[in-house]
Amino acid sequence: MKAVGLYKYLDIAQPESLIDLEIEKPVPAGRDLLVKVGAISVNPVDVKVRAPKAKTELSPKVLGWDVVGIVEQTGPDCTLFKPGDEVYYAGAIDRPGGNSEYHLVDERIAGHKPASLSFAQAAALPLTTITAWEALFERLGIPLSQEENAGKTLLIIGAAGGVGSIAIQLAKYAGLTVIGTASRSESSEWAKGLGADYIISHYEPFLAQMNAVGLSHANYILCLNATVQHWEHMAEAIAPQGAICSIVETEEPLDLHLLKNKSATFTWETMFTRSLYQTPDMIKQHELLNETARLIDSGVIRTTLTDILKPINAANLRKAHAMIETGRTVGKIVLEHFE
Predict the structure, then answer these.
(1) Residue 89 is part of a domain; what is its CATH number?
(2) Which residues cross the membrane (predicted)?
């Protein structure tokens, strides 16, 4: 089958950084689904995994953690899907990625594709949706109740990116007032269009900007960009007994003492945790993807797709990686159709 992968970890400008491949078609076992891939999306994690390093793979490494396709075959222990079902999912970081004609995924981390969306529209959603949902409703403990969230605020740092784009919509569905950070008019307008109530700059202290629009603090903060860079401003802006969640790793320690007097909480979100450690609650990702599909099909949430590249091949994936590396993308980049 066709696939795109790498043997060497190179700068994306190098032709060998991602190459077209022919690899063996996998066979499902256990609770795995064999999915015929129709569309994929590119995320910052693809860029991080592919980034230059002194390492060579003996067998090709296939990336890709956003897939939409059709179930072709199920493993003997599957109970949630059948052949012919349309699915969407992000997959697992410790297994081959979805940049291939066929792909294996544990059914417990896959959901039924939103019926109202095309394959390309749906491919923009899985990884960012899982990340945003887990960050908001599990790590930060935000209740899914508009009544309980009345008057409460969420600050999203990096609101126009992939995770921010879905987090804004989920937060508004939950009844929160959303403050998003952005640095350009394009990203500001995108975030406002998704429902952000206020837009502030992430190049200036957050609290003063929030006070200027009548907000005294943020009950919750979701950091999607440069945790260390924004740490002191987050600590200043968080409410007493508030909570901060970040998805961005740090290269130096964080001063947690800044949160002590406020009894504020800090937590991490990594959407691969459940699949990586085979946690007993893995099926929660299946459930939240199905619930998101329901919200999409009922018009509450919309796709965050902004760019489509065709077909799925190494040249177009190199182009998508280069776009992600600029740090200026809005929404999500999707590729569809193998040729």
Answers:
(1) 3.90.180.10
(2) none
Query: What are the pLDDT digits (tens) for 163-214?
Result: 999 999 999 999 999 999 998 999 999 999 999 999 999 999 999 999 999 9
Nearest Cα neighbor of 112 from 291, 300, 266, 268 is 291
- Taking phi over 0 as left and psi of -120 to 50 as alpha, with beta for the rest, 91 belongs to left
How many Å apart are CA 139 and CA 220, to the nearest integer? 11
| Biggest distance spanned by C-alpha atoms of the chain | 59
**Do residues 219 and 245 touch, judged by C-beta distance below 8 A?**
no
- Residues β-bridged to residue 56: 8
Q: What is the mean pLDDT of residues 33-55?
A: 97
Please check whether residue 232 is in contact with residue 213, taking contact to mean a CB–CB distance below 8 angstroms: no
Is there a single domain that holds both residue 54 and residue 166?
Answer: no
Token pair in block for residue 221? 């903060």
DSSP state of 257: G
Domain of residue 168, residue span: 129-268
Predicted TM-score of the model (pTM): 0.97
The answer, yes or no, to whether residue 93 has pLDDT greater than 90, is yes
Q: How many domains does the chain have?
A: 2
Q: What are the strands of the beta sheet with 56-62, ordered from one edge? A: 19-22, 2-8, 56-62
Per-residue pLDDT reduced to its tens digit, 103-155:
999 999 999 999 999 999 999 999 999 999 999 999 999 999 999 999 999 99
Residue among 164, 143, 155 at smallest CA distance from 216: 155
Please, what's the b/e burial string for 118-153 (b: 16 or more CB within 10 A of its CB; e: otherwise)?
A: bbbbbbbbbbbbbbbbbbbbebbebeeeeeebeebb
Cβ–Cβ under 8 Å, residues 86 and 118 = no
Q: In terms of domains, do 239 and 290 share one?
A: no
What pLDDT shows up at residue 339? 85
